[in-house]
Write a structure and sequence with these properties.
By secondary structure, the protein is α/β, with parallel strands linked by helices. It is built from 17 helices and eleven strands.
């Protein structure tokens, strides 16, 4: 972010990412470190229909530039999406500065990824650049809070929840009340028309608890109340994916139609969601059950891969044929990477060998066990294999 702000004024910098990953903290630290004068303001308490608030903040920035006789200024607006028609107002002020050669560099951020995306695509095409912020990595959680690899696999990468992991019931309540509930109620239900809100809640709960597993839509229908049809579930799952909460990975195939018709492999974006939404689960219960822990480890690897997907511009799939499978298939252009996850001592299965023979991936990798420890994988750079 610092290097982008130091560049000549070209585009608006939009900080986008899931809730509670430190977007505001990061922007404030950037403003403190830079020598460029700045104004940080938060629209959280502004009335949604206050059409003059953005213009007033912009004029304040211009006035400070004139008063101090400076040629460069940074305007950072947090929770911008809470103002109605914010993108049209930002476009007006940005274009006015561009026309008058006023060098105000702009940073926008907000807690609702969907509302930011909607406003950007509606009015600000060609005027913005996304600065993606993902969930916290193992290295970040380890250095900041001392989480070991097993704690990270179970408790995930929300920095605000780290203080509560010694009291798991308190940690779970924090996750559900402070992170999950706002994400569903504000990022999803208030930004997208959801015909059956109760079904969205049920699907999210079910999907999180089945992270790392294949679950057909017809089977989901039998497990949910008032479930409607498979098309509705697919649309809702896509919406949850756009919010960086939960997605359904498609099967890797050379035929696009086979991908779209495949059974989804459910995958959370942060393993804290799996642990918090699996009823009756505890860290001890998951860690001491090899079969359960294997699913937690696989889901954690999936989180890592999804978190890098937007930045590195690749797609994440799975592959399965009869009883043969590959946990994750990464595709960027013509480059294919196959990843198998093992939490125990068994290092290979026939699925990976058959996949290599059939699809000729550029690389294949076994993660976990003696082959590549999880710590090494999480601290590595997946782009080196693409």
């Amino acid at each position: 972010m610092i290097s982008r702000i130091k560049e000549p004024r070209r585009t608006i910098q939009v900080v986008a990412g899931p809730r509670q990953v430190g977007k505001t903290t990061m922007v404030k630290q950037v403003l403190e470190e830079l020598a460029i004068p700045s104004l940080y303001c938060n629209a959280d308490a502004v009335k949604p229909d206050d059409k003059g608030w953005i213009a007033s903040r912009w004029e304040e920035a211009r006035s400070r530039m004139r008063f101090d006789g400076i040629g460069e200024f940074i305007l950072a607006i947090d929770e911008i999406h809470k103002i109605n028609d914010w993108s049209e107002q930002v476009k007006k002020e940005w274009d006015a500065d561009s026309f008058n050669n006023i060098n105000i560099k702009v940073i926008l951020l907000g807690s609702s990824r969907l509302l930011l995306k909607k406003g950007l695509t509606e009015s600000l095409a060609g005027r913005f650049e996304i600065f993606p912020m993902g969930h916290w990595t193992f290295k970040e959680m380890n250095e900041a809070f001392g989480l070991n690899i097993n704690q990270y696999v179970y408790f995930g990468g929300y920095p605000g929840s780290a203080a509560y992991i010694a009291n798991e019931s308190r940690w779970r309540k924090y996750m559900r009340d402070s992170i999950i509930a706002p994400a569903i109620e504000k990022d999803v239900l208030q930004t997208t028309f959801i015909y059956k809100p109760a079904l969205m809640h049920q699907l999210f709960h079910l999907g999180c608890s089945y992270s790392g597993e294949l679950l057909a839509y017809n089977k989901m229908l039998g497990m949910l109340q008032d479930a409607g049809n498979a098309t509705t579930l697919a649309v809702y799952l896509k919406t949850l994916g756009e919010s960086k909460l939960l997605t359904g990975l498609q099967k890797y195939a050379l035929d696009s139609a086979r991908k779209y018709r495949s059974i989804p492999k459910l995958q959370v974006y942060n393993n804290a969601l799996l642990s918090a939404m699996t009823d009756g689960m505890t860290y001890e219960k998951a860690y001491t059950n090899p079969q359960l822990w294997g699913r937690w480890v696989e889901s954690a690897v999936g989180c890592f891969l999804l978190d890098k997907a937007e930045e590195l511009e690749y797609q994440v799939y799975y592959w399965r044929e009869n009883n043969m499978e590959v946990d994750f298939v990464i595709v960027r252009g013509q480059s294919v990477l196959a990843i198998e996850v093992k939490s125990g001592k068994i290092q290979m299965n026939s699925g990976l060998a058959i996949f290599r023979e059939r699809f000729k991936p550029r690389h294949s990798l076994v993660v976990g066990g003696d082959s590549m420890p999880l710590e090494s994988f999480f601290n590595g750079d997946i782009e080196n294999l693409l």
